[in-house]
Specification:
Helix content: over 70%
Strand content: under 5%
CATH topology of the largest domain: Tetracycline Repressor, domain 2
Radius of gyration: 19 Å
CATH superfamily of the largest domain: UbiA prenyltransferase
Largest sheet: none
Order of helices and strands: HHHHHHHHHHHHHH
Number of domains: 2
Oligomer: single chain
Shape: globular
Number of strands: 0
CATH architecture of the largest domain: Orthogonal Bundle
CATH class of the largest domain: Mainly Alpha
């Protein structure tokens, strides 16, 4: 048992840092929950349901990470031999068992929360399983790197409606237009993270490693992130008006957006190691700080 725990602790340390993901999920859940509460005109009171929802979302993130490791296993045997599955720390069969155990826990937690949460969680799980099978068109889809990413990050929308159903008790098809906009935002900020982390300066590119900068070129790779950040910024602007959020909220969002534009511009122009690192850094923190600003903006005002 101790060896089992040790092996999975190493896996988490290398491929799923618990502290970092916990912080991300706290603000991801809180931002979605607060927008859900106020869009449905429900008092925002933290109960056991919100806590169970956050734990379930953590488990969803974890099982998605494991699914990705399993899907990348054969490629990692060549390109990333030091990764946990590739070097034999965790067997593929064991990884599959762990992911399905996590799915069972997610559904059990959702049942405890409420019926609407269970339906949304079930849809999230089903979508993740279809993703795992690469929509049954893997040979066609895998070479299309951007399309592959866009179809996979859609799972963030399902997680968003799971949070909505958990905190409101309403079925996800009853989301308001306001929350519908925020569901779209979840997709945008997950795409920003995904596109950013696989974009490199010209001297950073590796022969056997795919990247959006190789596929799209530095200008188009940066432009994609700018477009998605602009959509996220527009929704934040609309939320600020609808929820009557403070000037500090607006200024914070403009600062985050401005930093993203600067990083994207520098990368598009220079396409070197330092601008690549800056671009990846900003894209990585965008998903966290966007939700931090939403969370604090709503709490501060209401």
């Amino acid at each position: 048992m101790l060896k089992f725990i040790t092996r999975w602790w190493i896996f988490c340390k290398e491929r799923f840092p618990i502290g970092r993901h916990t912080l991300l999920i706290i603000f991801y859940v809180s931002a979605n929950a607060l927008v859900g509460f106020h869009s449905a005109s429900i008092s925002s009171v933290i109960t056991y349901k919100e806590v169970l929802c956050a734990i379930a979302v953590l488990f969803i993130f974890f099982h998605l990470r494991i699914f990705d490791e399993i899907k990348d296993y054969k490629n990692d045997l060549v390109v990333h031999k030091d990764r946990p599955l590739a070097r034999g720390l965790i067997k593929v069969a064991e990884a599959k068992q762990a992911s399905f155990f996590l799915i069972t826990l997610e559904l059990c937690l959702a049942i405890i929360i409420n019926k609407a949460a269970f339906i949304a969680a079930l849809c999230t799980v089903i979508y993740s399983l279809i993703m795992y099978k690469e929509f049954f068109i893997g040979k066609w889809l895998r070479p299309k790197m951007a399309t592959y990413a866009l179809t996979h990050t859609l799972v963030s929308c399902w997680m968003s409606v799971f949070i909505f159903s958990s905190v409101t008790g309403l079925n996800f098809w009853r989301v308001s237009k306001v929350y519908g906009m925020f569901v779209l935002v979840n997709w945008m900020i997950f795409n920003i993270f995904e596109f950013g982390r696989k974009t490199f300066g010209k001297e950073e590119e590796e022969k056997l490693v795919e990247s959006y900068s190789k596929r799209l070129g530095p200008i188009r790779a940066a432009l994609n992130v700018v477009i998605m950040a602009t959509v996220a910024m527009y929704v934040a602007y609309k939320l600020g008006i609808i929820f009557n959020l403070s000037l500090l909220f607006t200024l914070s969002m403009y600062l985050l957006y401005g930093l993203t534009l600067i990083a994207a511009g520098l990368y598009a122009v220079h396409n070197d190691r330092s601008s690549g690192r800056l671009f990846r850094g900003i894209c990585s923190i965008f998903i966290l700080f966007y939700n931090v600003i939403i969370t604090l903006g709503i709490i501060w005002t209401h």
